[in-house]
């Protein structure tokens, strides 16, 4: 079968990625595996590294990059959303607060599913809303387990600190009190894909008057349980 698409540079990039599927490779290893000229193999690997589709290991060898895992997670989003509805509804009913599911999209986070509180004061985040990655408990969750370089960049201008994110990793949940929006508190926990990578954040949010200035004490366990149910569903469907 002819593997040529007619777009030469893409075909060569695909050769590089396929070669790395079997494990780390030096530049010489890439040349041997792909049959590409050394300068071409180097140029493509470095370009793919720029787009995070290729990375380097501790020995400086080329490996598959984190962007591929992110794309794979996005491809699995339909499985996540199929499970999210009943889990968020249960979380809302248990806590009495609005529940949301967020995914990272570039430098923003997007609400991909929600279950609204049925009455009274609500913190409504419509599905499809894009919110900042610089504030809020779900932003903390989506940032806390990032690779160091991306974490460092993301902290610039953020309302939370590296120390706060260290606490999030230790506890396994995050809270915010008026961080994204005055008067609103929230609690979030990570949803993990089959490779244990954080692919989404589950949150409950509402007025500080109800959630208090220690919302994690009230709702952390319920949010963690919801996140665990979604993580388990992703593992089962992989």
Automatic annotation (TrEMBL):
Pfam families: HTH_IclR, IclR_C. SMART domains: HTH_ICLR. Keywords: DNA-binding, Transcription, Transcription regulation. Residues 67-236 form the IclR-ED domain. The keyword Transcription applies. Signal peptide: none annotated. The keyword Transcription applies. SUPFAM superfamilies: GAF domain-like, Winged helix' DNA-binding domain. InterPro entries: GAF-like_dom_sf (IPR029016), HTH_MetabolicPath_Reg (IPR050707), Tscrpt_reg_IclR_C (IPR014757), Tscrpt_reg_IclR_N (IPR005471), WH-like_DNA-bd_sf (IPR036388), WH_DNA-bd_sf (IPR036390). Residues 7-66 form the HTH iclR-type domain. This is IclR family transcriptional regulator NdgR. It comes from Streptomyces fragilis. The lineage of its organism: Bacteria, Bacillati, Actinomycetota, Actinomycetes, Kitasatosporales. The gene is ndgR.
């Amino acid at each position: 079968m002819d593997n040529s698409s007619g777009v030469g540079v893409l075909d060569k990039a695909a050769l590089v990625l396929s070669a790395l599927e079997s494990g780390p490779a030096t530049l010489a290893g890439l040349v041997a595996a792909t049959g590409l000229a050394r300068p071409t193999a180097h140029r493509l690997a470095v370009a793919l590294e720029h787009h995070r589709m290729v990375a380097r290991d501790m020995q400086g060898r080329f490996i598959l990059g984190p962007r591929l895992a992110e794309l794979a997670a996005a491809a699995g989003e339909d499985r996540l959303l199929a499970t999210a509805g009943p889990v968020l509804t249960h979380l809302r009913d248990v806590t009495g607060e609005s529940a949301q599911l967020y995914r990272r999209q570039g430098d923003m986070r997007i609400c991909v599913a929600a279950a609204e509180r049925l009455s009274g004061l609500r913190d409504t985040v419509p599905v499809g809303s894009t919110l900042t990655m610089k504030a809020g408990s779900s932003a903390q969750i989506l940032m806390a387990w990032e690779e160091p370089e991306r974490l460092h960049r993301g902290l610039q201008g953020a309302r939370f600190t590296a120390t706060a994110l260290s606490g999030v990793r230790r506890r396994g949940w995050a809270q915010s009190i008026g961080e994204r929006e005055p008067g609103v508190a929230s609690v979030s926990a990570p949803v993990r894909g089959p490779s244990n990578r954080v692919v989404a954040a589950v949150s409950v949010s509402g007025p500080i008057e109800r959630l208090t200035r220690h919302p994690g004490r009230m709702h952390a366990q319920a949010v963690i349980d919801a996140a665990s149910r979604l993580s388990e569903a992703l593992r089962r469907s992989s």
